[in-house]
Amino acid sequence: MKHKYRNYYFPVLICIVFCLCIFLVRHVFSVRTQTNASLPVTEVRQSFSFLNTIDFELSELCDGDLNNTAFFQELENRTNIHIDWITSLSNLQIQNRFEQNSDSVPDLIGAGNFSSIYGNISADDALNRGDICDLTELVPKYAPNYYKIIQQKDIKDIAYTDSGRIAAVYSIKQNSQKPWCGLQIRKDWLDELGLEIPVTYDDWETVLTAFKERKGATAPLWISYNAYAQDESLNAGFGVSYDFFQMDGKVFYGPARQGWKDYLTLMNRWYQKGLIDVDYMTGNSIYADSKMIASGTSGAWFGMYTMPSDLSAKDQNIKVIAVSPPKLNEHDTLHIQKRYSISDNMFYISSGCEHPEIVLKWIDYLFSDEGSRFASYGTEGKTYTLDKDQNPVFTDLILHNSDGLTFYQALKNYTLAPGLPSAYIDWKREFQCVPPSSAVMCDVWASTDTSYMLPVSLSFTSEERTRLSQIMANVNSCMYEYTTAFITGIKSFDNYEEYLNTLKKNKIDEAVQIYQNAYDRYLAKHSS
């Protein structure tokens, strides 16, 4: 009798175990990878309006309409979703259409245009007022790939508001990004002159003097138009940021600290000695012009990791290396450096959008395995192929475009352009346009830690935002004007107290307290 029941239950037991194994395997697989969205997103073609201003180069490339790019044409083919792009607010008639609570507010709003419509308020307040859709319940259901990604701790801080809600869809980088720009110097000049790579400010002064006297450089060190927009690279050695920062939990405004005066004193000396461009303040970029480097005008500068490739195309004898920010003393540890966010953009869905669930399905495709590769690399067989390890490698359509497009122009046409919302992007794709020697520059610039920098996810209440906007408009103007005046010698350092008093008059202490309150909230949130 026992033998009979054993023969009956054994196949059933095997079946149960087999089904359980399938369930566990599928569960583990779903945790580790994104699922591919079902395409098309909708059988009936849907259209949504999207306000997102774009840079000049991209606007020129697509004639102001992103639907003219190969990427968005293909995305529409795959998803059956059409986007009516609004890429400029320069037309006053267009701008006037977007009045608060108006039926003409676009369905989707890029982060850079949020305040143009809703004012200087927080995302939580916009949710409370009913201006934008609360996506908290919708995202898990209609954007499962995106939802899975934003559960990672460092991303969750950014993707959720202070009240724990989802107000926007963020563009997420697949890996943390290292600094992609920093100080560079002509290694061929250093070798020719028998000079070591500069480490301290004194070393730098010696090198720049040699560049001026022995190489004829008229602007040995190129600096940006405001002398501090170089991702903290020149002022970090003095222990101050050009913005708000913290030490041991206490917030400070860098340009009101002694270290800022010391930095300006050095810049003034270098300016008087002709070691920096006497007309630096007339520029309009934070990156050096390659023509100034190729012509021998400058031998050190602030630039992107792509700069060496641009220069070698002009003159193969030019050899460039990355250098760490200068220090006061050789063995100092620097704690000031720009922090790069795991996200660089996002968009909101306005409350007037009739089908936010379809928008979420549409954008979730770009967070799936297939969609994120499409956003990062374009179309397989056309813009990329797979190497023996199944890694995407750009084709000549991107790397050596026959229509004369540069690498970045081709990238903006055939993939999701850098900085556009929103997708799960492999930012390392950009390394394919440069040799390995240029890519490792990012490691050199990452040698400085960021322990004094405030979190990129620091958030403010609407009242704080409004007050900061009022205060910092005057403070920033004051800081820029006095910084330029002290460096160029228009103002003597005997007037430095006048500068500090002007900052106080413009309520810098109140601004510091607002930042302190926001940072205290951040610390309390992350200590629990």
From TrEMBL:
Q: Which UniProt keywords apply?
A: Cell membrane, Lipoprotein, Membrane, Palmitate, Signal, Transmembrane, Transmembrane helix
- Which residue ranges does UniProt annotate as crossing the membrane? 7-29
Instruction: Tell me the domain of life.
Output: Bacteria
Magnesium recorded as keyword: no
Which InterPro entries does the entry link to?
A: Bact_solute-bd_prot1 (IPR050490), SBP (IPR006059)
Q: What is this protein called?
A: Extracellular solute-binding protein
Q: Which species is this UniProt entry from?
A: Faecalicatena fissicatena
